[in-house]
Fold:
Amino acid sequence: MKSTTQSLPDITAPNQRPTLRDVARRLNVSHTTVSRVLSGQGADLISAETRARVIETARAMRYRPNRAARTLATGKTGLLSLWIGDLFRPYYARTMQHASREIEGSGYETVVFHVRNGKVSPGTLFTAADGLLVHDWSSVVEAYLDFEPHPLPLVNMGVICTKRADYVEIDLYPGAVSAVQHLIDCGRKRIAFVSYQENLLPGEARLRAYEDVMAQAGLPTEIIGVKFNSRPQCREDVRAYVSERGCPDALFCLSDDMAIGAYRALHDAGLRVPEDVAIVGCDGIEEAEYLDTPLSTLSLPIPEMCRIAIEFVRRRIEDPTLPQQGAILQPTLLRRGSSQS
Structure:
């Protein structure tokens, strides 16, 4: 029996990369139809049968998107670039997760650049993207704006923002005030602030809130400085501090990472949380809820921040003449077992 399957004519030149138009010609459909199916934008307007034919033909022809050609034709890359800090810390990973979801839902794709120590390489400053999202690095935004005479549409977001560009800022001060006041209301008198040393700056919102609330309550301040921003270092330094100076009856920590490190140090010392020491962290990472004693924390509105930032950058891409866009969000204090007996 002879096969009834017919091979499709080769309408592309040898060694030439097939294009959307080649796929369209082979199927005798419009270029727009193929583009909608393969990009996913407007694919629901195409019948299921045609979508299946387009996908199967594109696979058979070994079609691969040519982003450079699309950029030349449209002036758009279809990319949003996310500049972010330590990719391996839960706080940053959470931001990357929510930002990527929002970006993909908007029809763009995500390119992530790891910003190390507040610096980006010169090559990164020549970013090929339609817009930029920068998380918690106002110094990087400033450097980019100073470097690039025609900056891309840019939104900086997080707890550290510059007002030279569109921004979505999380104001930690009111939440930090409520966190320290919560510890005082729980009857704690010796309350220490735990932070890695580089972040012990006069303008830091959590430190400022801690100092203000303690002063209003007539209580002395106490700072536990950690050499490096890591859980093991925090565990080591808090354990040494408690051994040398005795233990405060409450800790307000710069981050949930600091709080988890401190939690382990207290466990090492045979102290109970919250019976002996109450702890409140900051960030709202998922792990905080799964400790033996769930961690009270300032939960940052990361999903809302990402949603607004991507809405802002899309508006800026569509209309560069818009007035400055800005939003200020606040965290929520989650009272859990680590601060409540």
About this structure: The first strand starts at residue 79 and ends at 84. DSSP finds twelve helices and twelve strands in the chain.
